[in-house]
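testing teh design pipeline on a random one, pls ignore if ur not involved
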């Protein structure tokens, strides 16, 4: 089901615009939910923590569970999480760069 299998990840971030900087000790995972439900949960978590600049909640596809392994080269790199959020796929910065320079 394409609408199933979304999780919400909340926590305190060093940089609230970057899920890769989440503090693992504060990280909480909710779900899985359907997409709409996940959006609603994330929204309410963000509203509840509106005074905390470093708190963020993210809606993430469950099968893309957050880890740092690049799907292209299988290397672990901190940039994979960031690229997952920005581009929607799990790719490290060096693979992303080579794709940008040499599009196939
Ligand atoms: Zn890679």
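output:
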């Amino acid at each position: 089901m394409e609408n199933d299998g979304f999780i919400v990840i909340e926590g305190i971030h060093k940089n609230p615009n970057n899920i890769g900087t989440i503090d693992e000790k504060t990280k909480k995972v909710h779900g899985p939910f359907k997409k709409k439900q996940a959006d609603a949960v994330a929204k309410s978590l963000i509203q509840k923590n509106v005074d905390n600049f470093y708190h963020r909640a993210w809606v993430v596809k469950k099968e893309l569970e957050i880890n740092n392994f690049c799907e292209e080269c299988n290397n672990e790199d901190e940039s994979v999480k960031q690229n997952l959020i920005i581009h929607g796929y799990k790719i490290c910065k060096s693979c992303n760069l080579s794709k940008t320079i040499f599009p196939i």
